Structures
1.
Amino acid sequence: MNKKPKKLCLLAILGVIPPMILVFGIFPAVSLADNDAIDVVQERMLVMKSVDAAAKRIAEMMLGRDAYERQTLAAAARTVASHGGSRLIQQYPEGSLESPSKASPKIWADWDRFESLAQDLVLFGEGLAQSVERHAGPDTQPLHATARPDYTARRLNTGSLSKQPPKLVYLRLLRTCMTCHTKFRVKE
Ligand code: HEC
């Protein structure tokens, strides 16, 4: 099966749908027609896949498998950031759990936590971009040797993150993905 054209088509959809959401303000918390409910699930799964693709580009460079290219890295980090925050939480109207969604009903039971993790994606994505721009090159030590980040993230901002080594901010970003999935995504 040739995958390329399909991917391009998905990217086109990703480019078109988010502005439509902004313009038409769809996804009200009240009743969603069945098709809309399925669309909302499909769309957010696609968006997560593009977040995942950007995260993989970042990982390859952070781990030294790809050449460390600061502009490419910062752009990928901003792609991740752009899908967090209010844009992410808008994709979760209450009770939208239609198949094939792996979202957990805990999202709506602990909405504040979900929202704050969505916000962390913006904070650490943008923080990583700025850290990469500020530091000349990759940290020379391997990832596991990087000082352990303290995860009391609430008082951090992009300014303070930009001064931290890229790998440290990268760990915070990864931790955000993992924390949200552990808590709010149902295991396969
Ligand atoms: C605020 C919570 C949250 C954060 C942060 C988050 N995710 Fe997710 N992610 C989810 C939820 C919820 C789902 C399941 C969505 C569904 O199936 O309806 C998901 C699904 C996924 C999927 C599966 C998509 C599919 O088609 O099944 C991938 C891959 C993924 N996330 C990658 C990432 C990566 C990489 C990051 C960090 C850069 C990240 N996510 C950050 C909540 C989050």
Note: Residues 1-5, 27-31 have pLDDT under 50 and may be disordered.
2.
Amino acid sequence: MPHPKKKLTKAAKGQRRSHHALKAINLSKCENCGKPIKPHRVCLACGQYKKREVIDVTKKLPKKEQAKIIKKKAKEENKDLKKIQKEAVKLKKTESKKEDKKEGMKSVVRGDK
Ligand SMILES: [Zn+2]
């Protein structure tokens, strides 16, 4: 049997074990849902990493709740689509106005009306 050559004093033992204390882990916030997560790891609450869905969290839920979540997502996406379409229409209008102004300026420079 292996055996220590000399008695280890309480002080030596304490000195060795002075580095054994556990440190609190650093948690960062999930960018999507705001829950505390370990840095550089997927958020297990919403399944996102770097604003991209990596894990389908809904798979573990019962089917009724899955259906609810899918409906919610569909509604949100529809809203987003409508918003995007409205913004696109606004942009088109402003662009056409700008072009009108430019053309107006050109005609002024040319001297024709
Ligand atoms: Zn999250």
Note: The two ends are 109 Å apart (CA to CA).
